[in-house]
Specification:
With 280 residues, the chain is an alpha/beta fold. The chain is built from eight helices and seven strands. Helices cover 42% and strands 13% of the residues.
Length: 280
């Protein structure tokens, strides 16, 4: 069932870092805008964020596109300053940058440069972005920070994923440290672990890796979490209604194709069939 906008973020300003022309970043940016927030859409690729900002403006919202590398402090600081200058404040940060990157290989084979780049994208970028927005949120004694993490930060993925595991574990520890340090100011910091998401890159990798299927069945992206479903959870964490929740790690695996995801992780739980429709 599609939910109708209730303008829960009216008058707020959100920064969404890690936006492409599809996937979670775009869905969250559009969701924030539909709920009344002005949105700074941020990524390294200007053409992608301009497209998403244009979509927001076309639906009557307010948006700016800022190109920035989340792992470069000067660019992150400028991103936040530009947001405040053009939109007036910073009330919400959704950090969606990161990923597994190119760091592949066993403990003695992985290249340090690849390993470091993956950790930087997941952890250092999160640190720089949260630090920059907290300089604005702490004086105003309000704010919402949501980081995209992974279950690999809690239960490491076997094989050649050590950099991704470490980056996400650090990201979760960062969020919980910041939550403890800012709760008295009314700032909430939480992590969403979205599991398998039906986005272009994730779906392509899953299908390639399981080209012959899993347990006799083909990988079905329709059973992955949809970006719009993740956006609904992030919206709650960005809203007033989440005021009692900080330092939480929210796992969204149940709505995933657990069969494919658990085999990928070489871990339980076993496959759970998701229903075709949900009633409410």
């Amino acid at each position: 069932m599609e939910t109708k906008p209730s303008r829960r973020l009216e008058g707020k300003v959100a920064i969404v870092v890690g936006v492409s022309d599809e996937g979670m970043g775009r869905s969250v940016a559009l969701k924030f805008a539909s709920e009344g927030a002005a949105v700074a859409v941020c990524s390294r690729t200007q053409s992608r964020i301009e497209k998403v900002a244009g979509e927001i403006r076309a639906m009557g919202g307010k948006a700016i596109a800022i190109s920035a590398d989340a792992t470069v402090q000067g660019q992150v600081d400028q991103m936040v300053e530009s947001t405040v200058k053009q939109l007036g404040s910073v009330d919400i940060l959704f950090y969606n940058a990161g990923g597994a990157g190119a760091a592949r290989g066993g403990p003695t084979e992985v290249k340090f440069s690849d390993w470091q780049a993956t950790v930087n994208n997941n952890l250092i970028g999160a640190f720089l972005c949260t630090q920059a927005v907290l300089k604005k949120m702490m004086p105003q004694q309000s704010g919402r920070i949501i980081l995209t993490g992974s279950g690999s930060g809690v239960r490491p993925v076997a094989g050649d994923m050590s950099a991704y595991n470490v980056g996400n574990a650090g990201e979760i520890a960062l969020a919980q440290s910041l939550a403890a340090a800012t709760a008295h100011l009314g700032i909430c910091v939480n992590v969403v672990c979205p599991g398998a998401v039906n986005s272009r890159d994730w779906t392509r990798r899953a299908i390639e890796r399981f080209s012959s299927g899993v347990e006799g069945k083909p990988v079905d992206p329709g059973r992955f979490n949809q970006p719009e479903e993740i956006a609904d959870v992030v919206l709650f964490l960005a809203s007033y209604e989440s005021r009692a929740l900080t330092g939480a790690v929210i796992n969204l695996y149940f709505r995933s194709d657990i069969r494919a995801y658990s085999v990928w992780r070489k871990a339980e739980p076993q496959y759970i069939e998701r229903p075709a429709t949900y009633k409410w």
